[in-house]
Amino acid sequence: MHGNKTALVLGATGLVGKALVRQLLVDPRYTSITLLVRRPLPASLFSDPAGKLNPIVIDFGALQDYQGYFSVSHVYCCLGTTMKIAGSKAAFRKVDFEYVHIAAQLTRAQRAESFVWISSVGADAKSANFYLRVKGELENALMRMPQLPNAAAVRPSLLLGERAESRPAEDIMQALAPMLGKLMVGPLKKYRPVTAAEVAHKMITLQHFE
């Protein structure tokens, strides 16, 4: 089945973003995939025999200036950072809340068919945990945004996969993941570690296909 869908991906160089782009490149429903990135991509990062990929280097601090790129069928937002990398709560919030919120507004303005982003299991605007609170506040803001069609969040727990940067606590959890996964059944199932490829696949299934 060959389609005529177009996609825009933000956060294409992260763990889920890379897995997502690789799946979109082999999905016959998509004819073109635009990536908004901070810096030029290494040629070896993605295999693109069909010539679908269109990477655009932008300044995320002026994301609203790139509204035209949101004129696509589907917008995938894989943006996210950590407190360690961000360096402060304000810097973390800028990436994980503000940039995603602006992306949703641009998606609405350009009348894209759907918007899917990455949240987190346990996201709650009332959480005492800052990370989960920001994720919850974002969910509330986007789900209540008028005229944002087919908005959906993926809520992964611990992500399995090779990251560019070291995260010692996550490295330990990755080693324990096979055992933890078997223990997490019933209500705990949502906390099972998942692979980036699984999260990416879930994002694609949440998009609006007609």
TrEMBL record:
Annotated Pfam families: NAD_binding_10
Limits of the NAD(P)-binding domain: 11-130
Protein name: Epimerase
Organism annotation: Alteromonas confluentis
Lineage, opening ranks: Bacteria, Pseudomonadati, Pseudomonadota, Gammaproteobacteria, Alteromonadales
